[in-house]
Amino acid sequence: MSLSDLEQIPSYEWPDSAGAEIVRVITDRTAHADDRLMAAHLAQEYPGINDLMMGALSGVAGNPAESPELRSSAAIALGPAFELADLDGLAQGLDDDGLPCTPEAVNSAKAALRAVFDDKNAPDEVRRSCLETLAHAPQDWHAGAVRAAYADASNDWKLTALFCMRFITGFEAEILAALASADEHQRLEAIGAAGEQELQMAWPHVQAILKDSQADKLFVLAALGALPMLAPSPEILMAILELHLASADPEILEAATEVLDMLSEDDDDDWADDATDDSAVRRPH
Question: Could you identify which of 43, 60, 229, 272 might form a hypothetical disulfide with 77, taking C-beta atoms 3.0 to 4.6 angstroms apart as the criterion?
Fold first, then answer.
């Protein structure tokens, strides 16, 4: 199956051969640049990165002969795998129920991206992507790197720092400050970070967006993502969610439905029982 075919179907329907095809294209330096970028983007969705793919992605990310765009895309594709490996716990090892790669491959890929980030001669675009990816599995050195990135004069580095604050604690003041930034990209990243860090002081900002019928769609989508972590009660959560489940905008409706599905699937969440009660919410048909 070609990459174009894979792009047309959900990743959970990909055949077993999909991983090998992604690796083949992304490592083929004679392949068209657009095809290699497509392979890197598809790798971000691949449900089970193994040792071979992890080595291929980190190898491309660390190769100065490759284009900055491809290197960045390859690095970013490793983020979910690093996060899953971190959650599974490398000390216990990864088994058949976890990520299908070895701790050695994960650590080798992390070391490769760390080397790129530390290389001041590497393109900033690539260095920023490496830091963002490594932040999915926080280590002691990350807080200092994120603080330095946030203090950088470049807005791109500030955005990288704010993205990393989703995963790294201790930046509540910076997140709250960014929510009031004149830069809309900083505000968007701050909403995501506030949600992931469950920063309750950010709730008034998120609530104001979700209650504003004229709010920019990008902000509404970001605020919906943060809603389950920040809403002060199940009743408020569901009242706001119902408004967006009735949205005529398909993207907003999809985002709201994903929130509802997430609550429904989380059997351990006390809010899930309230959220999925038939009397509490009416899903659109």
Answer: 43
